[in-house]
Design goal:
- The chain is of the alpha/beta class.
- It contains eleven helices and nine strands.
- The chain folds into two domains: 152 residues, 3-Layer(aba) Sandwich (Rossmann fold); 88 residues.
- 43% of the residues lie in helices and 17% in strands.
- A hairpin with a 2-residue loop joins strand 3 and strand 4.
- The two termini are 40 Å apart.
- The structure holds adenosine-5'-diphosphate.
- Adenosine-5'-diphosphate (ADP) binds next to helix 2, helix 7 and helix 9.
């Protein structure tokens, strides 16, 4: 058994998830990248002692990838269950990360699993399977208000209990950095201050701003001996944008703050 991953609650998400799980209601995690959504699900699966199957959805992800397919073995066609079918049969938690990126047939495939039926129709086998009592469907979605992000239809969203993930308070975020990387609290606080400063610079028009993940990366580099300014530059500033003027401006700002 692997140990429970570290997760610092930021609100009532643990209670909400536990009750959703008891009531078999699918769960939607909304929020930008790097805000602890995956870590939260890993933590909850471990606490509930359930197997977690994670699928990183992308624009080519189809219902076949999730449900299963025939493969040719020798002269025979053999059916192989996909990860969703396995989770439905075994009673695992399936986490469809970035569900809005997947092809539309994925959304169609999960519909009967997300209402009172709790069943999966496997069209290639012409059969329907009832979900194991412990099965739960969890999805994440990045509502990014900018262009280029895909939307989720209301008819899909309303099948889930939904919770927003954002940036934690200064104190919690610094605690996360210390726990994740063993860095000094004073440096953790400085990194969090830098993040909040950049997050408030909405006029930069960044598609996504500094996530907790970027701060953890910067803290790791500092902890392992890379100079602080360089760590901040490569882990926080450069991943944010390719605009050279903005990079220069952010580097100056960070140099003053670290
Ligand atoms: P997401 O799934 O939202 O893209 P992740 O769960 O991968 O983000 O989080 C990125 C990193 O940020 C994690 O690996 C972890 O180091 C850190 N992190 C963010 N929020 C938390 C939290 N509440 N507790 C512990 N670690 C966190």
């Amino acid at each position: 058994m692997s140990s429970t991953p570290y997760y610092h609650p930021v609100g009532k998400e643990i209670e909400v998830f536990e009750q959703s799980y008891q009531n078999k209601i699918p769960f939607l995690l909304k929020g930008p990248t790097g805000t602890g959504k995956s870590r939260f699900i890993e933590y909850m699966a471990s606490v509930l002692d359930k197997k977690l199957i994670t699928i990183a959805c992308h624009e080519e992800t189809s219902s076949t990838d999730l449900i299963g397919r025939y493969i040719i073995k020798g002269t025979e066609a053999v059916w192989i269950d996909g990860p969703l079918t396995k989770a439905v049969k075994e009673g695992a938690i399936i986490y469809l990360d970035e569900i809005a990126e997947a092809r539309p047939d994925v959304i169609v495939a999960i519909h009967s699993l997300t209402d009172h039926r709790r069943e999966l129709y496997i069209d290639k086998l012409g059969s329907t399977i009832k979900a194991h009592n412990d099965f739960m469907l969890v999805a994440s979605f990045n509502p990014g208000y900018q262009k280029g992000f895909k939307e989720l239809k209301p008819s899909t969203r309303q099948r889930f209990v939904a919770l927003s993930f954002g940036y934690p308070s200064e104190k919690i975020e610094a605690d996360i950095l210390v726990n994740e990387t063993d860095i000094d609290n004073a440096i953790a606080k400085k990194l969090v201050n830098i993040a909040n400063k950049i997050r408030n610079l909405t006029e930069l028009g960044l598609t996504e701003t500094v996530s907790t993940r970027l701060l953890v990366d910067a803290a790791k580099l500092i902890k392992s001996g890379l100079p602080k300014r360089l760590s901040v530059e490569v882990a926080i500033v450069e991943p944010l944008t390719d605009d050279l003027d903005i990079i220069d401006a952010l580097k100056d700002l960070c140099n003053l703050m670290i």
